[in-house]
Structures are given as structure tokens and as C-alpha cells.
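Please go through the protein record below and see whether the fold suits the sequence. Record follows.
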Amino acid sequence: MIIPQNILDREDYKACADFHGHICMGLTLGYMAAKLGLRHLAEKRAVDEELICIAETDACGCDAIQVLTGCTFGKGNFIYHDIGKMAFTFASRTTGEGVRLAMKPNVMTLPTEEQELMEKIRSGDASKEDIQKYEALHETRSQALFAGAPDAFFSVEEVTIRLPQKARMAPSKLCDKCGEPVMQTKLHAAGDKQFCRDCFDG
């Protein structure tokens, strides 16, 4: 996918790229999702825990979402739900409203002709004309998608979710095996002993 220059030049996109370390389509999808989620909820970037995000992937886009929405792992309002889908649920603690965004099937699926040309290029069998045709098809498809962005990338579903509790502080206690401090709420009891998860499991 060819990311348009007008997106690359945006200051908020540059902030996402600086945080992530490079520019890529995955980061751009997260950027689009964050923009769309904030727009649907009529919210701005969270200062504290006003918003939550549930991410169904741990891919590059998560970094853009943390930068733009203020939902972060450290504050406990960025929650990883390991499904493997490019999908994100945003919810507002202020209004109670939520929206789930899921990447549309056509976004990363190549049309047959473009796929065949790409395979020829990868195998080294493509002619100069094949390469030019592939580039033209790829650019046309990219332009069409980005012309409708961010709505072109994600389906939108209004949802009602049970909002998680705000992040809570808990004192640390030493694991009875390794002796390292562990948040008390994360300890696992076995008899009269309490262990961190690693010691408990193994």
C-alpha cells in the first residue's frame, strides 16, 4: 500500500512514526482507527483514563493508537485481547458509548491480476511492462482506499461494553520462591505460600 504524502506530512502521524520507529502500513491502520474511533465517540485524546481501547492485535497499529488516544498499557486503559484481528474497540467513560472497528476484508486482499503480477516480480520472472503494470494497479488501489479514509479501512459497529475498573495500585509482596517483589493482586497461593506466576507455573 502506498501511503499518501498528505498523511506522511501530518504532525500527529509523524509523532506516531517517531514513537513506533518507522513508517509502515500497520502503523497507518492504527492511525486511521484512532482517528475514526475518536470521531465516532466525539472525544479528544485522553489525559488520564477517560477512554479505553481494547485491541485484538499486538501489531504496529497499537503504537499509533496509544499516541493519538492516550490509551496506554501503563495507565491500564489499553487492553490487549489476543484474537489476531485488526480490530479495536474504543469506549468513553464519560458517555458510556463504545464503538468497535474491524478492518474491512478488501483492504489487504489483492485483486487477482495484482496478486499474479506481484508473484511474477517476486519470482524474478516479471518483465519491465509487468512491473510498470503492477505499480500502476497498486497505486490506483491505494489512492482509492485513502480517498475514503479512514472509513474505507474499517467497518464500524456501535457497542455497549462493560467498562473495566480504573487502574488500581496494590502493594508489592515477595514471592516465597524467587524472593522478588510482586504486585500483591498478581500472587498465586499454594498452601500457606504465595508465588509469582512464573514460580507458580514452573
